[in-house]
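Methods, example record. To illustrate the input and output format used throughout this study, we show the complete record for Zn-dependent amino-or carboxypeptidase, M28 family. The sequence lines were provided to the predictor; the line carrying structure tokens was produced by it.
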Amino acid sequence: MKKKTIALTLTAMLAVGASIPTAVIAKPIEAGYQEALDQFDQKAIRKIDVDRIYNHIATLSEEPRVAGTDVENRAVDYLREEFESYGYDVEVQPFTYTGYTEPTRIDLNVPGFDQGLNPGNFTYGVSGDVTAGLVDAGIGSPADFERVDAKGKIAVVQRGEFSFADKIVNASEAGAAGVIIYNSGPGALNGTLGGHDDRLIPAVSLSHEQGQALLKHVKANAGSEARIVVEGAKTGEHVSHNVIATKHPTSKKKDTGEVIVIGSHMDSVPGAPGANDNASGTSVTLELARVMKDLPSDTEIRFASFGAEELGLIGSHHYVNELSEEEKDQIIANFNLDMVGSRDAGDLMVASVDGEPNLVTELTHKSSKKLNGEPTTLGRSGSSDHVPFHQAGIPAALFIHSPLEPWYHTPQDTLDKISKEKLLDVAEIVAAAVYDRARFDNQHPKNKKREETPVPKEAFYEQSIR
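The corresponding predicted structure is encoded as:
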């Protein structure tokens, strides 16, 4: 998930190295009723096979599916073949974007320094191999570089006051050959430079503790040197893909003209197998497509998997931007499944961008009450592939568990952390919610998405991530 405001988007939080906040439940629901599952709910959920979902996750999470890589391309082929095996016509929609390739090697070596160093990279950092003397350059301001001679040297600077990119550019313009930025508080430092800049020079990050120890070494050892090695980092044009399988209405005569999109993103972050983020959502989408293929319906249902979500919702933005205004008006709902299977995450919530109920949350409210006796928690999130749909005026919401698991965006996001119980719960809730709207016997006025009166907000649990 990029993934992503969950007040600050997950994308932005990852970029600045922020910790992921936990959720606060503000208001419990009042005692209510539990409707019995009817024959249509049963049709939608009875064929769901959670083992198939789990096996899809196992296949997809063998390696990190970083956008624009061969592994993501293999995921595209896998999804296309699976959708086609269910009998769908499938569209593979390519798109280009300017992206960053993470380095394959990051090293920092300081002769005579007896502590092990664990350097990190900055997204959009550049490759290079630099051996030079070390100089303390304060916080890396222009004034700092006026007081020290950084020409041909590696500047050691502290995080704070202005961006990482500004610090590196200031060092570059002062003639420095490389930069080490250390954290201003406890812990490791992760960050982004925001984009490519021809003035950038090789730079690595250190924790606060290691940075302070390195400066102590520099003061005690005049003329101390370091070697920075960054290999494989580059910025350039990349290609990713969206995969869309379409279930057409069973009868053209009874076609309402409405479209429901069930979506998820297929990519993961570098280094993370992405079993939960987001092989889980992708695999539930696949299973829903299989289960719903032959259900009689008067509504078009699209099963979509988006690429390059982790880089800023690029695939879903491309998909929505390519729609005509007529097509946008036909889409009445977007169900976005992102991180729906971690055993270590909290409870399920359905989150709209503004935290307000809409058609998606209304249908989910009804189906989860039938299945579980209480509605799914209502939340607010501005980070994931439901955002472009919301921005186009389409009711949309994210299905996710909160608080997030501790393995989020790490190499530990693996198959053994997946809960079949959570997968099945989400699959059943979404299937029942979608089919409640799409089935033949539940006719609705054509294209009334903006005139719907949703269930009052007070009827939900409210949850906001702040």
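Annotations derived from this record:
The first helix runs from residue 10 to 16.
Residues 326 and 460 are 32 Å apart (CA to CA).
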